[in-house]
Every structure is written in structure tokens, then in C-alpha cells.
């Protein structure tokens, strides 16, 4: 009987063949069964989440297009294209972030003015991402914005001011800077896949 290909993150209790390789199976009450294609796909954390404010939709769209050229649309989460109408926003954000290795947090001028609002979508996205140990957050500053100070942030986001931000010039240096950012994100996403 031919077994399926071994996955990178086999179940810790999965049976092994005579060569000691654990196969992509999941437990059930009687015996074991192979993971379906959709189960393996859902378990991967190789997507990129783009977090932005509606005021900066044009900038977010440009960054999305740049990432799409390297990652492909299926590995990006951009709410305008990814959230279907009528779904629960909080639930959808939580599910999406659980499948992401990185969050691109676009920070423009006056970014922190609404962050103290408990219902702020950007705040919800960052707080949810922070709870996921594998998810790395990349602050990206544009339009001469600066990293917000700790005093400008709610206690649940005080850690955000300590992150190292990346500058993004939307004019002459854009291609060089966004390419560097994409390389860093791709390298980290590959590291996550190797560890799983």
C-alpha cells in the first residue's frame, strides 16, 4: 500500500513507517486517516496580512499590488478583496490572522488618533496578531510618519512603539524599499514553514 508524501509538520502522535518517517495523518477514534488537501492547506501559516486605515486605501492598494507580484493573491489577506459581505468581521479577522506569518501594519500621519477606540479595526487586528506567537508585525511608515509613542497608545498596544519600523517612500525609492520589505517577509515566512 502506497503512503502519501510526508508533511513538514506531522502530528506528534502519527505512526511512522519502517524508515522512521511520520506521515501526514491525523487521529480519529479508530486508527488514523490521511489529512485532506484542505486540512494541510489550512494548517499552513504562510500568508501576509495587510493592516491599514481607510484614509490610506490608495497606499494599501499599491503595497498589495507589489506583494501580489511576489506572493500571489492567494497568500495575501487584504480585507477589501478577502472579506465577503455579511460575515462577522471580528471572527473573520481572527481566522485570517491564524493563517498568517506576517502583518504589514501601514502607519501614516495621524495613525494613532483613533487607536484608543476599543472598536477600532486596526487596534483589533494588532491585538489579535500579538496573541499569535508565530506572527511577526512589520510597521511600515509612509508620508513622513513616525512610530507612535507609548503614551499615544492604549496599554494593550504599548509594545507596538518598541518595534523597528520600515520607511516607505512612495516616490523615487519605493521599488527598492518595498522589495527589501518583501524579501524580509518572505524569509521569515519560510522560516516559520521550516519550523512547523
Which helices and strands appear, and what pairs or packs with what?
Layout: E1 25-27, E2 32-34, H1 37-43, E3 47-51, H2 57-71, E4 76-77, H3 79-82, H4 89-98, E5 100-107, H5 121-130, E6 136-141, E7 166-167, H6 174-195
Parallel strand pairs: 3-4, 3-5, 5-6, 6-7
Antiparallel strand pairs: 1-2
Helix pairs in contact: 2-6, 4-5
What is the number of strand segments? 7
Helix content: 25-40%
| Strand order, largest beta sheet | 4-3-5-6-7
The secondary-structure element order is EEHEHEHHEHEEH
What is the average of the pLDDT values?
A: 81
How would you describe the shape? globular
Strand content: 5-15%
What's the number of helices?
6
List segments where confidence is low: pLDDT < 50 over at least 5 consecutive residues. Answer: 4-8, 10-30, 37-42
Largest sheet: 5 strands, parallel
End-to-end separation in angstroms reads: 27 Å
| Secondary-structure-derived class | alpha/beta
Radius of gyration of CA atoms, rounded to a whole number: 19 Å
Amino acid at each position: 500500500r502506497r503512503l502519501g508524501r510526508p508533511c513538514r509538520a506531522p502530528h506528534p502522535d502519527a505512526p511512522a513507517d519502517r524508515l522512521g518517517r511520520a506521515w501526514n495523518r491525523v487521529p480519529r477514534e479508530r486508527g488514523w486517516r490521511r489529512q485532506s488537501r484542505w486540512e494541510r492547506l489550512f494548517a499552513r501559516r504562510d500568508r501576509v496580512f495587510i493592516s491599514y486605515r481607510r484614509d490610506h486605501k490608495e497606499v494599501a492598494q499599491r503595497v498589495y499590488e507589489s506583494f501580489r507580484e511576489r506572493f500571489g493573491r492567494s497568500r495575501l489577506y487584504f480585507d477589501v478583496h478577502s472579506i465577503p459581505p455579511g460575515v462577522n468581521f471580528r471572527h473573520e479577522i481572527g481566522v485570517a490572522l491564524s493563517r498568517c506569518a506576517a502583518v504589514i501594519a501601514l502607519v501614516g500621519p495621524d495613525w494613532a488618533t483613533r487607536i484608543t477606540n476599543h472598536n477600532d479595526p486596526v487596534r483589533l487586528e494588532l491585538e489579535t496578531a500579538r496573541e499569535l506567537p508565530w506572527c511577526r508585525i512589520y510597521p511600515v511608515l509612509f508620508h513622513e510618519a513616525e512610530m507612535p509613542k507609548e503614551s499615544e497608545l492604549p496599554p494593550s498596544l504599548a509594545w507596538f512603539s518598541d518595534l523597528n519600523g520600515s520607511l516607505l517612500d512612495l516616490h523615487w525609492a519605493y521599488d527598492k524599499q518595498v522589495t527589501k520589505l518583501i524579501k524580509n517577509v518572505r524569509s521569515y515566512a519560510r522560516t516559520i514553514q521550516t519550523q512547523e
